Structure formats: C-alpha cells, structure tokens
Amino acid sequence: MSNKSLSVGDLCPAFSLLDQQGETINSADLIGKQILVIYFYPKDDTPACTKEACSFRDSHADFSDLGCKVIGISSDSVAAHLKFAEKHRLNFTLLADEGALVRKSFGVPRALFGILPGRVTYIIDLKGTVQGIFNSMTDPSGHIAHALETVRGLQSLE
What we know:
By secondary structure, the protein is an alpha+beta fold. The protein has a single domain (about 15-155), classed as Glutaredoxin (3-Layer(aba) Sandwich), CATH 3.40.30.10. It is about 35% helix and about 25% strand. It has 6 helices and 9 strands; from the N terminus they run ββαβααβαβαββββα. It has a 7-stranded mixed beta sheet. A two-stranded antiparallel ribbon has the order 6-7. A hairpin with a 4-residue loop joins β6 and β7 (about 115).
C-alpha cells in the first residue's frame, strides 16, 4: 500500500472494514450504487470529531437527497464506534480501521507535526473516481459544506 495522497481523478482504493454494528463493508459493494462521501477523522468523541460527525448527521437528508452515502473512518474499534454513534444519534456508517491500513491506502496525511491522524474528506463518484478532496483539521464543518458543493457540481454535469 502506498502512502501517496490521493488526488482528484484517482480511483478509490479497495477496502473492507467492519462498521459500528460489526458488519463487513466492502468498497466494491458500494461503488456504482451511490456517490460516496468518505471522511477520515482522528478519534471518536473528541470535540472537533464530534462536531464534524454531528454536522454530517444533521445534513444526512441533504446527502440522501443527492444520492450519497456518508462513511466516517477512524482507527477506533467497532465498540468505540457503536458507543459514539449511539451517544450522538449518528445516522451513517462508521468504519473501524484499527490498523490504519485504509487511511494509508488513501494517503491521508498526518497533522500537527505528524502526531494526529489527519481529517480529510473524499467524494467518490459512481465510477469509483475521486472527484473532490477537503483536508482541514481546523474546520470540521467545512467538510460537509465542501462535500455538498462537490456533489451538487457533479450532478449539474450529468
């Protein structure tokens, strides 16, 4: 697996991870069915990560109306994800990337002098191609706005 960061136009790396219910989610089963909004975040139940997750939760209808599936990925365990999802009534999929292998395959950069896992959102079209990337540790809500703007732009091209 590469540590090279993905760019717009690259194909989404294949992955298979457990969700907060312990069910296996394979990227190959998702691509082609819905636009994917995949966001990587550092840690469950920390202030910025909670703000970001709750913003995705509150925008769920907007993403659904646009034919999107939102997926959050961190290195937290299935049990931690379930607790986080239940506590904040999250209405989307959280995936447990405990070995950070999927994070590495996407090339998500580390932040804060390499100490923290990065916060990056990828928009993947129906063909599995990266169509948008938003990388910001300090603007968790900006990830939602950028993703919605990118998806609306994709749909205007159809």
